[in-house]
Structures are given as structure tokens and as C-alpha cells.
Amino acid sequence: MEPNAIDQALDQLERATASVRAAFENMQAEGLADAAGAAAHGATAGAIDPFIFRFAIFVLAIFVGYYVVWSVTPALHTPLMSVTNAISSVIVVGALLAVGISASGLATGFGFVALVLASVNIFGGFLVTQRMLAMYKKKEK
């Protein structure tokens, strides 16, 4: 290898190390996904777009969620529905914040749509949970 190529490789390694250090320092201040995205962005010299990195995490979460839900035994479906309703209530809080704090009309519109869809999801989840619990009750004669 030429000395110039070695110097360039060492410079790139130093930049990547500095960016990993900065991402580690940001990990306490920001979310873990943002820090991991910044570390990947710095280590690859900007070859990975942070949106693609977060989208890959989202797709992996879909697969993990699918396999977790379908591997649950039927006796545990009712508690799973209750936990899903609790998660949807957190989404309602986020949607309320998006509607109330947003600076643009587009964000307010998306927040309102999220609020309506999460509310429908919670209401439907409680109905399904109620029907599932009714199956376990003894019928009166």
C-alpha cells in the first residue's frame, strides 16, 4: 500500500472513532436509536442514511412482534390484549402532544388522525378483551 493511502485510512479511522465517541456522549442526552444511528453514520463515513437505519429497526421490530404474538399460547391472549391497549394509550398521549404542540397544520392533521385511530384501536381492544373474558365465565343455567 502507498503511504498516502495508509494516511487516508488512518484519518478516516480517527474520524470514525471521534464520531463514535460523540455518539456515546450523546447516548445519555438523546435516545439510544439516535446514538446508534449517529455511530453507524460516522463509522461508515456517511454511507448509511439515518432514515434507512431507523427504517431497518422498524422492519425488524415488525418481524419480532409478529413472531412474539403468534408464539403466545391461547390462554395468554387476553393479557396480551390488555398490554396492547396500554401501549395504545401511550400512543394517544403522543398524539395529543402532536395535536397540541405542533407548529404546522400538517402535524396537527397527522396528530388528529393518530388520535382517532388509536382511540378506535383501544375501544375495539377493550371489546375484544371483554368477549374473550366472557368465554371463560361459567354460564348460568
TrEMBL record:
EC identifiers of the protein: 7.1.1.1
Residue ranges annotated for the NAD(P) transhydrogenase alpha subunit C-terminal domain, each copy included: 55-138
Major location category of this protein: membrane
Keywords: Cell inner membrane, Cell membrane, Membrane, NAD, NADP, Translocase, Transmembrane, Transmembrane helix
Superkingdom classification of source: Bacteria
Subcellular location: Cell inner membrane
Membrane-topology annotation of the record: Multi-pass membrane protein
Single GO cellular component term: plasma membrane
A UniProt-annotated Pfam family: PNTB_4TM
Chemical reaction(s) catalysed: NAD(+) + NADPH + H(+)(in) = NADH + NADP(+) + H(+)(out)
GO molecular function (one): NADP binding
Keyword Nucleotide-binding attributed: no
PANTHER family linked: NAD(P) TRANSHYDROGENASE, PROTON-TRANSLOCATING NAD(P)(+) TRANSHYDROGENASE
UniProt function note: The transhydrogenation between NADH and NADP is coupled to respiration and ATP hydrolysis and functions as a proton pump across the membrane.
Protein name in the entry: proton-translocating NAD(P)(+) transhydrogenase
The species this protein was found in: Chelativorans sp. (strain BNC1)
